Amino acid sequence: MLRNNPAEARRQKLIVIVGPTASGKSELAVRLARKFNGEIISADSRQVYRGLDIGTGKISGKWHPPITIISIRSYQNDSKFLYKGIPHHCIDFVPPKKTFSVAEYKARAENAIRDISSRGKIPIIAGGTAFWIDALVYDLDFPDVPPNPSLRKKLEKKSIAKLLKILQKADPKRARTIEQKNPRRLIRAIEIARALGKVPAITRHTPYRVLWIGLNPSYETWSHKMKRRVGAMLTRGIILETKMLIRQGVSKKRVHEFGFEYRAVLDYTDKKMTKEALLERIIRESIRYARRQMAWWKRNKEIWWISKSNEAIQLVSEFLQSPL
RNA sequence: GGGUGCGUCGCAUAGUGGCAAUUGCUCGAGGCUGUAAACCUCGCGUCCUAAAGGACUACGCAGGUUCGAGUCCUGCCGCACCCA
């Protein structure tokens, strides 16, 4: 669906940069973009939101105070988000009260790919949200059934066993393959089955020519960097940022969904845990998060793992020179 | 000095005399079709076994009562609190 012209039906090249949080993905992406004439597509489920800057490690947050960012950009246009002179797409454009899903991300990122390559540039996808990257790269074709809040609310009250029964009746095939004890999955499946009669199977293939680069620094290097980053979060004002969100009318429940950093800050402001404890908690959770990320990518055998960003230059230049 | 309470698998917690011992967190492994930093599953004393299962070692320490003790009794050690 990306091809608008059969003569151009060569596979679009894509560079994808993955790696645990605080491994230097953003900086590497920018470096590659500058060297190889690229633009960046962020793949981060939280950096899409405006106002989540410090807690998500959003690049712009490095110099903009949160307030200015919130007012400038419009939701509709993929207005240029520049960092070190490089345009970044799919970042900082959704109001925090709205929710933005994988499927929406995928559509927007596909647009960005088209846009970037139409200008003769190479798209570089960088981010920490593995599922979003896979959805985009492997063209996971999510059924066109938007979330149905009232149905969900009703289903959420039911037991897991009951949910499974409902799904078995609606779509026995999907009921067999689904995670049978995962209420979230069950509810979504029922939602789809209600709308379409059944849950369509999803295929996994990639329309792109992809260079996967995995940034995996040594534990010492990484943990040092990560701790510095978490420390900086506090000094740069994640607590104030959280309060600002609340002040804008974002519910606490919603702030909870913004990840462990914000959850920890809420606990800090509510229960008055010490700042030291807050710092330690975010560090500990960062380690856990990084492990989960790695667990996902470990399975992807296409990834070229590197420990230093220099190694990426070689990989990319070979990739770009290689024929289709 | 007197009194009371408490010491359980990294931390926290449950445990009517029949328990390798509850639950939460951490930790480890795995999973994932529109919340994905989310959500779900499994494991977590040691050893043998493909498995069912078995053997051993365990609830501060030392004894005791009992067919059987984390659970009852005595002493000791440690911690907490109260009265002096």
Task: Chart the SSEs and their pairings.
Blueprint: E1 12-18, H1 25-36, E2 38-42, H2 66-72, E3 81-83, E4 86-89, H3 102-118, E5 122-126, H4 130-137, H5 149-156, H6 160-170, H7 172-177, H8 183-196, E6 208-215, H9 219-236, H10 238-247, H11 252-256, H12 260-271, H13 275-298, E7 303-306, H14 310-321
Parallel strand pairs: 1-5, 1-6, 2-4, 2-5, 6-7
Antiparallel strand pairs: 3-4
This protein binds one RNA strand of 84 nucleotides through α3, α4, α8, α12 and α13.
Structure overview:
With 324 residues, the protein is of the alpha/beta class. The chain has two domains: 6-141 and 203-321, 3-Layer(aba) Sandwich (Rossmann fold); 149-196. It is 51% helix and 11% strand. It has 14 helices and seven strands. The chain has a seven-stranded mixed beta sheet, sandwiched between helices. Strand 3 (81-83) and strand 4 (86-89) form a beta hairpin. Helix 6 (160-170) runs parallel beside helix 8. The chain is globular. The structure holds one RNA strand of 84 nucleotides.
CATH class assignment of the largest domain:
Alpha Beta
User: Assembly state here?
Assistant: single chain
What is the CA-atom radius of gyration, in angstroms? 21 Å
Helicity level: 40-55%
* Largest sheet: number of strands, sense, barrel closure: 7 strands, mixed
Taken from the alpha-carbon principal axes, the silhouette is globular
Number of strands: 7
CATH architecture of the largest domain: 3-Layer(aba) Sandwich
Report the CATH topology name of the largest domain.
Answer: Rossmann fold
The structural class is alpha/beta
